[in-house]
Amino acid sequence: MDNYESLHLVGAGVYGTVSKYKDKVSGDIVAIKQCKYTKENDYLRLMATRELSALQRLKHDNIVQYIDSFSHDEKLFIVDRNMLDLIKEMPDGVPVSHIRRLIYQLCKRLSCCHGNGIIHRDIKSEYILLKDDWQVKLCDFGFAQ
């Protein structure tokens, strides 16, 4: 963790927290997901192992990039912008042309997963990240199988 400068907490959920960090060497912005992982809890260990396995296998421009893992099953991946934030920013609705593009991209991402024998099993707006150019990235593979 000495290689990273903590910026802020991005979010917390049932299975862990995600915080935004800056890589002190490269200057890259990354997110560090710290799983609620304990040796005594087989279910949490299984969730962390599934996510780590899926991220290591999936190499695609539009799926969050696995960078590294640390003890206690912390994982690093790039965090851009999620769909829930976008929806909040556009209270009058997202234009239909944008929705079509997002759905098409999401289907392509899921096809990549399925082609690699991985089923996400937890698609929701928080796990669909959006770059500034409206490119979709899929994240959070804790329920993947």
Total number of domains: 1
CATH topology: Transferase(Phosphotransferase), domain 1
Give me the number of helical elements.
3
Order of helices and strands: EEEHEHHEE
Q: Runs with pLDDT <50, length 5+? A: 72-81
- Say which CATH homologous superfamily is assigned: Transferase(Phosphotransferase) domain 1
Classify the secondary structure makeup into a structural class: alpha+beta
Calculate the terminal CA-CA distance, rounded to whole Å. Answer: 29 Å
Strand content range: 15-25%
Task: Give the beta-strand count.
Answer: 6
The neighbouring-strand order within the major sheet is 1-2-3-4
Q: Specify Rg, calculated over alpha carbons.
A: 15 Å
Overall pLDDT score: 77
Q: Helical amount among residues, as a percent range?
A: 25-40%
